[in-house]
Amino acid sequence: MPRFTLFFFLLWLQAAVAWSQSVYAPLNSDYYHLIDRYEIKSGKHAPGYQSTVKPYLRKNIVQLIDSLSCDECADLSDVDRFNIKYLREDSWEWSKKPEQTANSKEPFWKYFYHKKNDMYSVSNDDVELHINPVLYGLLGVGKDASPYSYINTRGLEIRGSIGKKLGFYTYVTDTQMRLPGYYQDRINFFKAVPNEAAYKIFRSTTSSDGVTITPETATDFFTARGYITFDPIKQINLQFGHDKVFIGNGFRSMILSDNSGPYLFLKLTTKIGPFQYVNLFSEISNQQDSIPTYGALPTKKYMAYHRLGLNIGDNVNIGLFETIIHSRDKSQGYFDLGYLNPVIFYRAIEAQKFSADNSMVGMDVRWTFLRKFQAYGQLNLDEFNFQELRKGRGWWGNKFGYQLGGKYINAFGVDNLDLQVEWNGARPYTFQHVSNKTNFVHYNQVMAHPMGANFQEIAGTIRYQPLPRLNVTAVILSANYGLDLPGRNYGSNPLLNYNEADRPAGREYGNYIGQGVGTNLFYGELVASYQFRHNVFIDFRQVLRDQKSALSQFDRSTVFSSLSIRINSPQRLLAF
User: Fold this and answer.
1) Fewest Cβ atoms closer than 10 Å to its Cβ: which of 106, 131, 457, 554?
2) Whether this model's pTM surpasses 0.85
3) pLDDT computed for residue 326 by the predictor
4) pLDDT cut 90: percent of the chain above it
5) Residue 537 · residue 527 · CB < 8 Å
6) Which residue positions in the chain have pLDDT lower than 50?
7) Environment class of residue 109 by beta-carbon count within 10 Å: exposed (0-12), middle (13-18) or buried (19+)?
8) In Å, how far are 95, 123, 430, 492 from 497, measured between CA atoms?
9) Is 526 exposed, middle or buried (0-12, 13-18, 19+ CB in 10 A)?
10) Could you tell me how far CA 116 lies from the centroid of its own chain?
């Protein structure tokens, strides 16, 4: 512990000589689609960052917008110009003329909303401060949503910097929520709320067997994210706090996603020429055997992640990564300091320690071309034996995940019509390990694709913005996966162990995607979202979900309609 205290004290001293500092724009698929759209439209890499690693610094978002040349802006529609103005106003402190950008015509009560995106803001040489409310109110009805569904979120978002050297961010909300039956079943099965950490349930019944989930059951949880960030030198950015990281260019990620709750981490991002090197050291939690309760601290494990990214030419990016999940007992100091080594290739360290830690390696690639298209892919090798793969016998130990996708902006010559399609899959037992101390799970949720493993999925999105303030988004996905029977592990559930005794009849060969209880899923979603004023949205959402299984007990059909208002809050993901 003293060594860690000294380490972070030295980081704090470095902040005294740090460069002008920005915070990150929170993860939000709708918001990040706009940013990525204009990188594709520019026809070249965004300056200052590699878009595979999210979130992005606000100063880099504005830098991208400002870098668009006259040629690239010549064919911008009125909707594009509105979006660019919106992105610039959302990070007005980094615009070329911050004193003029995003000014409101009429501040509220003279003290509030001087800037369109800030309820209250201060900017001087000593401190920069942005304070905003957070609200998400939803009411929904339909089949499998009895008696009704709702989201009630209230909170506060604060960001800024001190002396233009040290950036800080905090986001705190309190939420009560009940969503359609398939969503509530997922909470009950994994003992976790998707994308969140600790929670409690209410409006349930209690029996001798414990808590019984009923249609009226709802969840209550507190979300807290926050961090500090600074640049000790121009080429390096440090971020320390409690938040999430997303690796990828797709709708999903097979490497590291925001599917689980936030976690404590230290992230170092080094950019030198075409290279970007990311080190992520995280503290995550072992799975819970029951619903987490406040005051009962979960046991810890640790993740160390490295990604080396390389820009090739103006429009190709390749990344190589590795991840180690490990856990030590108290006598060994909990975190293995050997994994603080910032140099890539942990396998050598792991071998020297005769370790049984969980290691994953892989790569991602992205190619942008013709200022309209982007192709991308990911490969995650959890465990892999090429000789067994060649034999084609379905060896259980060949565990890997993959993704292949593409984006098409201004599709078929229609302004602001953007299409995206991707193919995702994971072999059985991917992300599982010998115990919950080393699986790729945080707060009972896999840290990659929400379906875990033993699945294939085709996912598509259609985004159309007919008017500057109106966005229409359709999400369509079709998936095939295998479910587990009680007491059996066919490889889909990341919480289970892959030991021989836990696999059906010690199954060594003959494993394939979709084994177990074969299940097909269709999910369709249509959202019309109107931006009433800056970061204030009114949404109508229609969801159709149909799950058909080889065993009728797993069949489920959902029809769900909802109306919501959001202030400085992303839409909650329902697509699984």
Assistant:
1) 106
2) yes
3) 84
4) 66
5) no
6) 1-17, 208-209, 331, 333, 351-354
7) exposed
8) 51, 52, 11, 11
9) middle
10) 27
